[in-house]
# Entry
Amino acid sequence: MTALDVAFAAVGLVTAASGLLAVTTRHVVHAALWLVVCLGAVAGCYLVLGAEFVALVQLLVYVGAIVVLVLFALMLTRAPIGANPDISTGRLHRVLAGVLGAGVTALLAAALLPLAGPAVERRDTSTTQLAEQLFGTWVWPFEVLSVLLLVALVAAMAVSRMTRPSVAAEPAVTGEDGVA
Amino acid sequence: MNDAVEVTLRAVGVLAAFLVLPLLVGQTEHKVMAHMQGRLGPMYAGGFHGWAQLVADGVKFVQKEDITPAAADQRVFRFAPAVALVPYLVAMAAIPLSPDVVAADLPASAVFVLAVTAVGILGTLMAGWASANKYSLLGAMRAAAQLLSYELPMVLAVASICLAAGSLSLSGIVAAWSPWWLVLQLPGAIVFLVSAVAELQRPPFDMPVADSEIVFGAYTEYTGLRFAFFLLSEYAGIVVMSLLFAVLYLGGWHGLASDQLGWLWTLLKGFCIAVVVIWLRVAWPRLREDQLQRLAWLVLVPLALAQLALTGVWVVVAA
Amino acid sequence: MTEEAKKPGAIGIPGILKGLATTARTMAKPTHTAEYPHAQPHLPPRSRGVIALLEENCTSCMLCARECPDWCIYIDSHKETIPATTPGGRERQRNVLDRFAIDFSLCMYCGICIEVCPFDALHWSPEFEYSELDIRDLLHEKDRLGQWMPTVPPPSALDEHSAEAAEIGATTRPGRLVRTTPARPAPTRATPSGQEPPPASGQEPPPPTASEPAPEPGE
# Structure
């Protein structure tokens, strides 16, 4: 048991606990906030395992952007303060979801536990190594993905700037052309 | 044992900087804004030109009643100021003032600072939602929309600098800095400055706290020390962003006698940027929400992408 | 919509730079702030600070109290009989002012009381530093109002080009003898003020038409 083991166990516990709370809480916004804790703790896991850059990107993208988007969407709906009985599920659903979750956990455990060695070795991955891998071995998937995202970005802008239905048919066609 | 002492010393140093520098910026804002408007600003607190005005303000905030609205979500409401404040404290620890004066020299500190400051918005969102106030909620939504929009050009601008320097570490970036960057990275610098001001929700990008429309946005229901924490986080944000700008674009500690006085150079450059941020507040009116989004997506993002491409070409040609 | 989008781009950049320049220039210039308790403010003439009472002039006519829109002037008086000065003369009555008070917590500084006073008993004083911790202390009784009298500035000099005050003009103006002369036809031509002559004078051009062409080339 090194200090790193303890740290990993701690962030792992936090991840699991906050994940559980995110699913079980009856407050919609609290669920999103527990999700923040969960994703942050996952970043902590990466950090403990030596993948510093991945941890930072996890923080930047998931905590800084994705969850903010989730919260934003929640606020656009009527996210009330306090427990919300309208959106809580019935007993049967809960039991079913629990069984399903336990099944997936068991499956994953059965598949992954035999693969794990006696001790997880921590490999510090420097950003240079990461970059060499990313822009060497995996450069094609990376580039294709980035082009896809760029297209999505430009298309989103084009869609949002499409002139609205005063003449319903025509602008829609030109807008699609613009996207294509 | 020595390590423990050193860690404590560094933490205390960061905390001291975190408590002193924002006050310095705040006082500068008081005075600069006043003189730009033909006024004097605070003149009495502390005797000499009101230097202790913000200390007095702090004492006042401590004395005020700490109110949590009855309809609010108590725990989230109380926790939000900490979420807004701590990220900037952590970010400040990673910003180097000189090769030696840095609390935590991380290998990817540029990404670290961006990632950590992006968390701060959660505090505003939590505050806005938990206040059970429609103005607060509107403010929080405006803040979220604004910060999501301006996060992208900012990251792209920093990516361009990292590309030029060939390093994700702020120290490495300053080491690779050359005066040519002042010209070649100028569009990126403008993009960064504009998005930094927008991220801080400072005028002219203060839609989220537009006092004439939505009282004080997400912070409407806050009083006393918790409100002061939000204000402190804003000014700490100015400090972090100004220092970051100085380190990324102005060459940090490069200057005369940079071996001994490097930290002073960084602070000085950062201070100048902070004054510019204050200046923008005085000179320009608030942007409307649609103008704000249009600026981010139609001006800043393309500009940042163009800068990134330019830097890429430059790096390849130079290498 | 498109026009709106174009406008800020077309004129926006010089505009925002101008804003920066203006604020920077203001910062370089000295400020306009007067630090009041340490530096006395420069008050314009005829400043309305407080209303002073010259008790001797007051006849308790109640005009001010009646005209006051806020009803903030309180006057009490009683009649006093003055015995005849000469034997067999008539006794006279006069008003004696018992109380004259202005409640400055109600007063809106309109100055109607001062305008309306026929005997110049009320005056504006520029003094304004009479704030109180208790609102009831803003009710100034006549001795307090009298104390403001020394602070009343002398009336400012009239503008040199202004018309004479009516009462002075009435005494210095010559009598209206001129009006009587135009009734006679013959000597009117000599008087410059005569406007009736036109039907009588045939040969000479009338003075108004003669004077008209002169200014035109000048203009």
In short: The mean pLDDT of chain B is 86.
